[in-house]
Amino acid sequence: MTKLTRTSLSNLRDLTAARVSLPTTGNSIATDEVLSFRRDHALARDAVHAELYLPLFAQRLIAELPILTDAGIVVIQLRTNAPNRATYLRHPNLGRTLHPDSVAMLRRSPCDLAITIADGLSALAIERNAVPLLAHLLPQLLANAWNLAPIAIVQQGRVAVGDEVGANLGARCSLILIGERPGLSSPDSMGAYLTWSPGPDRTDADRNCLSNIRNGGLSPKVAADRLFRLLQVARLKQRTGTSLKEGAIELDAE
């Protein structure tokens, strides 16, 4: 029987879920590791192809976040110009703009913040992390006099669609929660992107991002606290992006 060989760096595996220092049998990766890789690869593929069912998710938001009803914040369901998942994956640009029918649903009214939730590349990430994050973030925002637009949930959405939603709602700031591209150890990571003065001309340089929001990464509660501090500083300085470094956030929070 071939002996299982562990490397001198095997203890690194206690510190990370990354595939480092894999045990071997002879010249091959150990069978358990090969099977584990195939399982995680299948989970990542499933996460990419899964779709967020908007009516059910809207019901869940209202049921699990009663603060929305108390504050009079409604949930609206939108779609992008990507007609289905397969097209969305092949043509990323279609996920960055709203379908004309969805644009017509938005009513411009001055407000501080528009929150958008989009499936992105992992509906699983949204299903697991969006509600817990909002449960911590919304009370902080409302307690600090943030005037919130209706919450928009978007099917087949990319990051930029949050800025289009924010601009059409007349928001001073846009926040989008979106499923990130799955990794082999993290099929459920959610990202959060923040844009001051959102609009179609905005680029990644104009946004701040928190990544890897999930249990096992940046927990939804910790992410909500960091987002709230970021939003407070963005409102104070009226900018986001490369000119709003996270180090400055801590400085301003003191």
From TrEMBL:
GO CC, any one term: ethanolamine degradation polyhedral organelle
GO biological process annotation, one example: amino acid metabolic process
Record's catalysed reaction(s): ethanolamine = acetaldehyde + NH4(+)
GO molecular function: cobalamin binding; ethanolamine ammonia-lyase activity
Alphabetical UniProt keywords: Bacterial microcompartment, Cobalamin, Cobalt, Lyase
Protein task: Catalyzes the deamination of various vicinal amino-alcohols to oxo compounds. Allows this organism to utilize ethanolamine as the sole source of nitrogen and carbon in the presence of external vitamin B12.
Protein name in UniProt: Ethanolamine ammonia-lyase small subunit
Organism expressing this protein natively: Telmatobacter sp. DSM 110680
Gene name of this polypeptide: eutC
